[in-house]
Write a structure and sequence with these properties.
The chain contains 9 helices and 6 strands, in the order E-H-H-E-H-E-H-H-H-E-H-H-E-E-H. With about 250 residues, it is an alpha/beta fold. Helix 2 packs across helix 3, helix 4 packs across helix 5 (about 105-115) and helix 6 (about 150-165) crosses helix 7.
């Protein structure tokens, strides 16, 4: 059996403030650090032993992974970071309050910007202070690679080559791999693995810091998938994510 462990980062400072975050590099809250550590405690208790880890360039994911590994007493594991695992770019709505934006543009429009498959939010200017072009960690990217806005379709397009060429190939060497990333980059992986339709993925929400386990046979054919933890608590977390962008 082979195993893929997906974890969305713990609560970030902008999650708490209900702001569109995207590629903005914000830290975890104290609650986010705690829930990330508890995810590691749960994984250790249930006997999960990842051998290789992947995460994004954004500190909320990196520090979630650090907390998980500390709790598992597995800080020694190899970790590879890639910008391709970053969150979806929310373009010009990055930094705006989700509920206020819904009040201005309507719940349906904001739902499309947040969760639809192929609708992009308004784009940033390349030289906007919020643009990745202004961030030295993305200096190696060409202007054409810099996302100024993205739909989920766009996020999947830049993510999946890395997933297939690097993460999946890691299973040639390892039986258990862990990816700690973001709501939309992980939804891209989940959509691919589960064969979900564009409409189904709009309604699917990944809660923060809850391990999502995928089990495969030796031919990498999916056998089952499940969230790890208390079902009622997970349900409440998923509902909370779904309701973030509804106008007050």
């Amino acid at each position: 059996m082979k195993q893929l462990i997906l974890i969305r980062h713990g609560e970030s400072e902008w999650n708490k403030l209900n702001l569109f975050t995207g590629w903005t590099d914000v830290d975890l809250t104290e609650a986010g650090r705690k829930e990330a550590y508890e995810a590691g405690v749960l994984l250790k208790k249930e006997g999960y032993r990842p051998q290789m880890c992947y995460t994004s360039y954004l500190k909320r994911a990196v520090r979630t992974l650090n907390q998980v590994l500390e709790a598992m007493d597995m800080d020694y594991l190899p970790v590879e970071k890639s910008w391709r695992l970053n969150e979806k770019s929310y373009g010009a709505i990055q930094g705006l309050n989700k509920a206020d934006t819904a009040a201005k543009y309507g719940d349906e429009q904001v739902l499309l910007w947040r969760r639809s498959f192929d609708v992009q939010p308004p784009a940033l200017d390349l030289h906007d202070e919020r643009s990745p072009r202004m961030d030295p960690r993305y200096a190696e990217l060409s202007d054409s690679e810099i996302p100024l806005t993205e739909s989920l379709k766009d996020t999947i397009a830049r993510l999946m080559p890395y997933y297939k060429d690097v993460i999946l190939k890691a299973f040639d060497r390892y039986s258990s791999v862990m990816v700690v990333a973001h709501g939309n980059s992980l939804r891209g992986i989940v959509k691919e693995l589960r064969g979900m339709t564009n409409d189904e993925i709009i309604k699917f929400n990944i809660p923060t810091a809850v391990p999502y386990i995928f089990e495969f046979n030796d031919n990498m054919e999916l056998q089952k998938h499940y969230f790890l933890g208390d079902e009622e608590e997970i349900r409440k977390k998923m509902e909370s994510v779904a309701n973030q962008a509804k106008k007050k």
